[in-house]
Design goal:
Layout lengths: L1 H11 L11 H10 L5 H14 L4 H16 L8 H14 L4 H14 L2 H14 L4 H14 L1 H10 L8 H14 L6 H11 L3 H13 L3 H14 L3 H13 L4 H15 L7 H17 L3 H13 L6 H12 L3 H14 L4 H13 L3 H14 L4 H13 L3 H14 L4 H14 L2 H14 L3 H6 L5 H4 L5 H14 L1
Helix pairs in contact: 1-3, 2-3, 2-4, 3-4, 4-5, 5-6, 6-7, 8-9, 8-10, 10-12, 11-12, 12-13, 13-14, 14-15, 14-16, 15-16, 16-17, 16-18, 17-19, 18-19, 19-20, 20-21, 20-22, 21-22, 22-23, 23-24, 24-25, 25-28
């Protein structure tokens, strides 16, 4: 059914697509790079190939790999592997003797949980193609499940690596490394492997392993090794982020950002979201070295591409605020409010920035605008309450904390903030009642309360101290 729908879609289009636009090698490169937000455009690229070559089994094979990747990284549910199997079935019907199609079909069936059928196909495949590189690869994988070291010894003795394509070799090496114990020599082992087996995907994997453990120097080193083999935009982006955020090499990072932008601009193979992500990092990097005007220009580039997805814009704004780059953030926020007046978070971040500047009346106005747009967002009431507290307008703040709790009764922070304010106002019994609710919802607030100076008045009050400690310690004893 899926393939019928795709063919119908392809045949119904009036526009003519030349074979020049169907570059399978380019699709393979796009699949390897796995750039955030690009899967939809890769899919369109593949469908374009289907229009031109509806009987090319490799096109269906590539489409199945895209779907499998989306499932593996959690972008789509496992049930979507059925679509990959449908595509592989179409590829198989076009070329039933193609070893790669058979092997991928067996792999995908195994991922889908159809182990019996998968083993049958693998068995038939290995009998029909006993000397094929994929047969040897499957033997190595099967041995890997039983004993990783014996598998690797056999893999090297048979010199399997010399027969495999780079991606296939990388897949085995990554699977083998994942079996290694995380002991003192783990990283030495994988570095030894990179000296012998030099593939871009394996370098990428090793770079990410070092990144997980905050070894930014080694991580950057291996990402650079990837780029020596191929110009991978995703890897270059990761390298640039490490360079300016962790290694203090902002100049090198900006060179990489500019290189990425030069490749992406005007290239319809990549979504606007990808450009937003790069511009967002570029803006923060420029701001970190006080190039505020250039940072502002990059921030505005993010804003104008954020009509459908504002994730990167939001992250950029909060990074700029953390750097105290208020001028840059202010320009991007005002432009967002102008272009998207129904976007409540634009007003919220405007309010947060005004709060940083201690312009609390202006902040309250922005929070009120956000609440008018989204009255069911409890955090907006809490933020406005904080601004009221700063102005010592405690009654207004108390009303907002209470309403925030009404909107989201499961959120403990609203009760805690209300309790803290009530203690400040001298309403000790009501403060204890709200504190008890907060700790009941989230036990961590018992420790937070001990570190909150507003509750010192309760601890030092002979009438309420015992009640305070009873509430806090009851939760600690219970946990």
């Amino acid at each position: 059914m899926l393939l019928f729908s795709l063919k119908s879609f392809a045949q119904s289009q009036n526009s003519y697509i030349s074979s020049e636009l169907c570059n399978k090698n380019e699709i393979k490169k796009e699949l390897r790079q796995k750039i955030p937000g690009s899967n939809g455009l890769i899919e369109k690229h593949i469908i374009g190939c289907m229009r031109v070559f509806p009987k090319d089994p490799e096109v269906y094979l590539l489409y199945s790999k895209l779907v499998s990747h989306e499932v593996n990284v959690g972008e789509k549910p496992t049930s979507k592997l059925k679509s990959a199997l449908t595509l592989l079935g179409q590829a198989y019907s076009l070329d039933s003797k193609n070893p790669t199609i058979l092997y991928t079909l067996a792999q995908t069936l195994r991922d889908y949980g159809e182990n019996e059928e998968s083993e049958q196909i693998f068995g038939n495949f290995m009998k029909e193609f006993p000397d094929h590189r994929l047969t040897l690869l499957e033997v190595a994988f099967q041995k890997l499940e039983k004993n990783s070291e014996e598998s690797f010894l056999w893999f090297e003795q048979k010199n399997v690596a010399s027969m495999l394509e780079a991606d296939e070799l990388s897949a085995y090496l990554i699977a083998y490394v994942k079996k290694l114990p995380l002991d003192k020599i783990y990283y030495q082992k994988i570095e030894n492997l990179t000296q012998k087996y030099q593939t871009s995907l394996f370098y990428d994997f090793v770079g990410k392993e070092f990144l997980k453990h905050a070894d930014y120097i080694r991580s950057a080193y291996y990402f650079k090794k990837v780029l020596e083999i191929e110009d991978n935009i995703d890897v270059r982006l990761q390298l640039a982020v490490i360079q300016y955020k962790e290694l203090g090499n902002t100049k090198a990072a900006l060179t990489n950002f500019n290189d990425i932008l030069n490749k992406l601009r005007g290239n319809s193979s990549f979504s606007s979201a990808v450009l937003s992500l790069v511009y967002a990092h570029q803006s923060v990097a420029l701001a970190s070295i006080h190039q505020n005007l250039a940072s502002s220009k990059a921030a505005l580039e993010v804003e104008k591409r954020s009509f459908q997805d504002k994730t990167y814009w939001e992250a950029m704004i909060y990074e700029l605020l953390a750097l105290n780059k208020l001028f840059v953030a202010d320009l991007a926020i005002k432009q967002m409010i102008k272009d998207c007046p129904s976007y409540s978070l634009g007003f919220v971040v405007a309010g947060e920035m005004q709060s940083i500047l201690k312009n609390y009346t202006t902040a309250i106005n922005y929070y009120s605008d956000a609440i008018n747009l989204d009255p069911k967002e409890d955090k907006y009431y809490s933020l406005r309450a904080n601004a009221y507290v700063a102005q010592k307008k405690f009654d207004f703040a108390l009303e907002d904390y209470s309403y925030a709790s009404h909107v989201n009764p499961d959120e403990a922070s609203h009760d805690f903030n209300k309790s803290s304010l009530l203690a400040k106002m001298g309403n000790y019994q009501e403060s204890l009642n709200s504190l008890k609710k907060a700790i009941h919802k989230d036990k961590n607030y018992s420790e937070i309360a001990d570190a909150t100076k507003e509750f010192d008045v309760l601890k030092n009050n002979h009438k309420y101290a015992s009640k305070y400690f009873e509430i806090v310690q009851a939760q600690e004893n219970h946990s």
